[in-house]
Structure formats: C-alpha cells, structure tokens
Design a protein that fits this description.
The chain is α+β, with helices and mostly antiparallel strands. The chain contains 4 helices and 5 strands, in the order βααββααββ. Strands 1, 2, 3, 4 and 5 form a 5-stranded antiparallel β-sheet that branches. It has a single domain, classed as Alpha-Beta Plaits (2-Layer Sandwich). It is globular, with a radius of gyration of 14 Å.
Amino acid sequence: MQRMGMVIGIEPERIPEYKRLHADAWQDILDMISKCNITNYSIFLKEPENLLFGYWEYTGSDFEADAARMAADPRTQEWWDICKPMQVPLETRKQGEWWAMMEEVFHHD
C-alpha cells in the first residue's frame, strides 16, 4: 500500500458548490476510484488559504496504469469538467500535473 497526497487551490466563491458536489458524489465516480485501487480517499479544505488537500491509499501495483484508466473514463472526464473550473492549480506544480503531488515525509501507525 502506498499513501499519496496532493494539493490544489480553489476559487473561494466556488467552495460551497464544491462541497455540495462532493457531499453527493456520483456513484460512477466512487466506483471508478475503487476499480483503480484507490482506497481511504479524502479531500480536506484549508481556509482562508483556499487550499484543497487530497489523500488516498493506493493498493494496486501500477499507479500510472490505474491513473490512465481513470483519466480515460468518460464519466470521470465529465466530473473533472465540472470540478476543474473551481480549482486553481499551484504555479509550482510539475509539468503535466493539475493537482500538485506531495512527498510523504513522515508516517506513524
């Protein structure tokens, strides 16, 4: 199992909409997350900085393949088309990233 984290900004005026959308996440999206070997997935909000922090545990053996599978899914693309205009990517993110991936520097069970 691999713990993974990512961060992105959010437009402050879109926070209520983002919360509503995720409070009633589409079942297709939840199913795809599970099919791609992602468990224990959470998104946290930090205000007033307006940052979203995503955390999940990856239980598969090829994250890049599972991420590509998810990205190719039409229903996931529809979900992202709704979410992306609410988000503000970090200027310091790596090329090709939307959410900036984070390095795990500490863990304790």
